[in-house]
Amino acid sequence: MKKEVLSELGLSKNEIEVYLKLLEMRIAKAMDIAKATRLHRPNVYDALDRLVKKGLVGHYTRENIKYYEVIDPEQLMHILKVKELKLQKIIPELKILQFEAKPPSSIKILEGIAGARKTLIDLISNTKELYVLGVPQDLPKDLGEGWLKEWHNKRIKNKVLFHHIVNENYPLRRIKIIRQLKYTEIQFLPKEYSSPNSLFINDNGIALMFQHPFVCINITRPDVAKSFKRYYQMLSKIAIKKSPQEN
Description:
The chain is an alpha+beta fold. The chain has 2 domains: 75 residues, Winged helix-like DNA-binding domain superfamily/Winged helix DNA-binding domain (Arc Repressor Mutant, subunit A); 142 residues, 2-Layer Sandwich (Endonuclease, Chain A). The strands form 2 sheets. The protein has a 7-stranded mixed beta sheet, sandwiched between helices. Strand 6, helix 9 and strand 7 form a beta-alpha-beta unit. The longest helix has 26 residues. The N and C termini lie far apart (56 Å).
């Protein structure tokens, strides 16, 4: 496990062997590390030199002999942060290349929980309103209650208005949670309108979400969004504002 993680951080096989052995030895000469790892001495010197440049290993000289020691392992986090900063710098360039290559697809299909979460994140990006129809009772459980709470926090931070129509037997606990959220309204339809699937509509398009397993069909077309908004508004006129469970 340790070696796999260090490899993912960009350390070579020899660097990993030397680094882990030096952690055990605490302070050692290159020759002693070579004996302990059974690596050729030139390879050990080369690995130590690279580890020093990466800020993971330090050294000092005593009586003309160089000793090496590992700097705090938390220094590994610095490598991760440097990689993240480098990635952040090129993300805009990568996005430009993506859109220069071809226009974004108007239809995307995403699968699994990761796909459902990505769909929901995209739905509250670059929009002022989000309309939702037919949310199944087990959707919060499947997506994760904690994750859904963070999603709502982000939506509220972005001041995205959340219009929500569910069937009248929607769990009272969920209704109370939704009632407490800012920029949120909820209405109810008779239970015969119950649907195992969900329809999401924002300013840019729509998303159809199917569960068990998750399959999300995302359509980016403002004209389609306008059409489905009219459908939502038609249902909103016959929906009631208070669930029978709240009486």
